[in-house]
Specification:
Elements (H helix, E strand, L loop, with lengths): L1 E8 L4 H6 L1 H13 L3 E6 L5 E7 L3 H9 L7 E7 L4
Antiparallel strand pairs: 1-3, 1-4, 2-3
């Protein structure tokens, strides 16, 4: 099943986020190779991301998100998707 993850970052966490960007990129690449992450979009001001993910359940998607180095700095919403 496909899921849309909408995640925003607080400006006050910017220093911590920047320190972990390379780790985040590596983990996202691993999830892409596993077929878990299908697409990733970053807002031009870098305060928001949208991730299209594959997962059997919302709990599985949540678990995969928790493996991201930037997860502690994210405010997330997970929405199931359906094709038209």
């Amino acid at each position: 099943m496909e899921w849309m993850v909408s995640a925003s970052f607080r400006p006050q966490d910017q220093a911590e986020i920047l320190a972990r960007v390379h780790e985040e990129q590596a983990r996202i690449q691993t999830l892409r190779e596993q077929g878990t992450v299908e697409a990733l979009y970053i807002g031009s001001d870098r305060s928001h991301v949208w991730i299209v993910m594959q997962g059997e359940s919302q709990d599985q998607v949540q678990k995969d998100l928790e493996s991201l180095p930037l997860y502690p700095y994210m405010e997330i919403a997970i929405t199931p998707l359906s094709r038209m």
